[in-house]
Amino acid sequence: MNLRIPGPTPMPPEVLEAISHQTISHRGGAYEELQRRVIENLKVFFQTKNDIYLLTCSGTGGFEFSVSNFFSPGDKILSFTCGEFGKRWADCARAFHADVIETKFEIGTAINPDTFKKVLSEHPDAKGIFVTHNETAVGVLNPVGKLAGSVKLHPNHPLFCVDAVSSLGGVNLEMALGIDVLFTGSQKAWMAPAGLCMASVSPKAWDFYSSSKNPKYYFDISSYKKFNEKNQTPATPAISALFGLDKSLELMLKIGKERVFSHHMEMKNYTREKLKENGFSLFVEDEFASPTLTSIKLPDGNDGSAWTREMKEKYGVVVAGGMGEAKGKIIRIAHMGYAVGKEEMDEAIEALKEIASDK
Ligand SMILES: Cc1ncc(COP(=O)(O)O)c(C=O)c1O
């Protein structure tokens, strides 16, 4: 099968071998060395000196980690959404009784920096700003660097929280730009098993932690910090997933982070050009397009689920349909993880062509 969904992504053979290792005690020296190395190597891709925490959960855990640790009921959170994952994060904040002001952008477009700036100026009492770096539901990359500039000028010094679940490890994003809370998922560009959410926070986030009144237990960052000091986690970590992540980080560092990032850009350009050449309409304009996945607009009257079923059953290519408002209207093909190459994309595009010719 050619697995082309936007995560979980296929794992390179070396990673598959690494995860078949017998398990080890999470309270022993071998584990501590593994965790120390993984965190050290993750810092290269997070582009930060801040500590990194290994949460045993999927990316959604990053939503709860950020909301529960740093905020209190009634806090004003400005959420900027351009798809389903941004919306879910806003829902999580509402579940913790935050006062969420959601600014929605039309699906297929990115967060507009001018609108962002204007909304920030209208809410001088904002405590948190939530932005999804790569909106996987549609394949849009948001201009986090530009947005960070506006956050820095805000009089209330809100916490800038960024979901980079489906971009970090494949796309250049410096935490040092002014991001306070940043998290990602092991099953995405990291080409590791699902089960880990890797998160980092700024010193400013710790000030917010001190005054936070939200209930917290499993994701309480102070227990992660305490255990990080001895290279352990408070509860049993996803050890096999960590074996995989350790290996994929070794492979990624061997190639070099710049090359990993440029490979994703090349795959994006290649896929988009090839789809256009073959008469497909892309759902997202070039300027907003994601380096890790591409969405194709289906011709009106076509049923997205019929396309994805046929892709899988007839051609062995597993792709994703749309989510939320884009459900049934688009097909998403991922080029996430440096191990995917032109061959896999060609195979997926050939299958799409065959299906289109039958319609
Ligand atoms: C941008 C983004 N945020 C959050 C999530 C949720 O992650 P998970 O499904 O691992 O809980 C995803 C999953 O695809 C995502 O792409």
From TrEMBL:
Ranges where the Aminotransferase class V domain occurs: 6-322
GO molecular function, one term: alanine-glyoxylate transaminase activity
GO biological process: glycine biosynthetic process, by transamination of glyoxylate
Pfam name, any one: Aminotran_5
Keywords: Pyridoxal phosphate
Cofactor(s) needed for function: pyridoxal 5'-phosphate
Residues the entry annotates as binding substrate: 332
Annotated positions of the N6-(pyridoxal phosphate)lysine modification: 188
InterPro entries per the UniProt record, alphabetical: Aminotrans_V_dom (IPR000192), PyrdxlP-dep_Trfase (IPR015424), PyrdxlP-dep_Trfase_major (IPR015421), PyrdxlP-dep_Trfase_small (IPR015422), SP_NH2Trfase/AEP_transaminase (IPR024169)
Keyword Transmembrane helix set for record: no
Family assignment from sequence similarity: Belongs to the class-V pyridoxal-phosphate-dependent aminotransferase family.
Protein's name according to its UniProt entry: Aminotransferase class V domain-containing protein
Organism: Candidatus Gottesmanbacteria bacterium RIFCSPHIGHO2_02_FULL_39_11
